[in-house]
Amino acid sequence: MEWLNSKGVAEDGYVLDVEPGKTYLLHIINAALFSEYYIKIAGHKFTLVSADANYVNPYTTDTIAIAPGETMDALVIADAPIGRYYMVALPSQAPPPDTQTPEYVTRGMVQYSTVLLNSSRDDVPEMPDNHDTITSFHFHGNLTSLLHRQNSPPVPKEADESLFIVLSLGSICRNGGHSCKRGDSGEIILVANMNNVSFHLPPETATPILEEHYYHNGMDNTLQELANGPPVTFNFTDRDLIPFGPKEMQLEPTSRAKLVRRFKQGSTVDVVFQSTGMLQGDSNPMHLHGHDMFVLAHGLGNFNPTRDVATYNLVNPPRKNTVLVPNLGWAAVRFVADNPGAWFMHCHYEFHLSMGMSAGPEYGQNDQYQ
């Protein structure tokens, strides 16, 4: 099988040459701006050994699910019959009524070094459906940390602070006012938010947040604190909120601010990220700069503390810097504020980030946030 470009000329794709019986370590990163990807190699399995540069208990699977910002290290044994095998990366997206966008499959080839040039054996893997979100949910749920007596930090048993962060879309009025026609109108600008506040650096802001943090320049006057929870509680994962309509219009109004959250240095912080159906039902790969997070649990639907806290893995949760919050679901993480500075927490989908789904955790500087 040949790949042809737009001019009809044969074009080689990525080829991984392997020798029979050898084991290969693949370093995989999703550097895409948008879309989780399913990765498979026909006739082969992966043994996942690391996620986000932290060892995990070896996990054997034929499918890797990886979101933007995530990294995976996987072993592949060249133990299939001599031949050529397609390596396929399939983007996934939320099913309708979410907006459907063009998503393109990319392919490479695993080729055994002893294969004949005229071999007709080009195996293609059977891929998940592009609307399949459950395979990703179970893949991430199967990750656990590989514990080392000396190098594995213990999971803190209690949290000093707890946040419930609702990840959503909303709108602001295009004219800068507080009153405008919501929904599918030309009077709004769609924004992304955390607890109904969309991150925004005003044009008049001349001082970067890091400099404000270090020199205390205007910190109290220009920053807004990320709240412990959303201003309004609703059925976050209601699919009727995905399309424009009277139901979502009531929840649509959003504010904008230079959003930060101040912690005490050394404190243990629990965060529950809750995805919503507001104008979209996407997953959200949440990335925290400067820290690893213990992923204690995740689930589908609305987080219920009475039910879900009891499922927390406090023994060997995976440590990650990018945590995938499932489609119309939630993820609970715990981290220690042990790396002083002004950091950034954001969704790794580029359009969510540019629309304001971010905030700046900060602490240190003589513990002024005690």
TrEMBL record:
Its cofactor is Cu cation. Residues 10-96, 233-359 form the Plastocyanin-like domain. It is found in: Secreted. Its main location: secreted. InterPro entries: Cu-oxidase_2nd (IPR001117), Cu-oxidase_C (IPR011706), Cu-oxidase_fam (IPR045087), Cu_oxidase_Cu_BS (IPR002355), Cupredoxin (IPR008972). GO terms for molecular function: copper ion binding; oxidoreductase activity. Pfam families: Cu-oxidase, Cu-oxidase_2. One of its GO terms (cellular component) is extracellular region. Gene3D superfamilies: Cupredoxins - blue copper proteins. Keywords: Copper, Metal-binding, Repeat, Secreted. Belongs to the multicopper oxidase family. This is Laccase. It comes from Eragrostis curvula (weeping love grass). The lineage of its organism: Eukaryota, Viridiplantae, Streptophyta, Embryophyta, Tracheophyta.
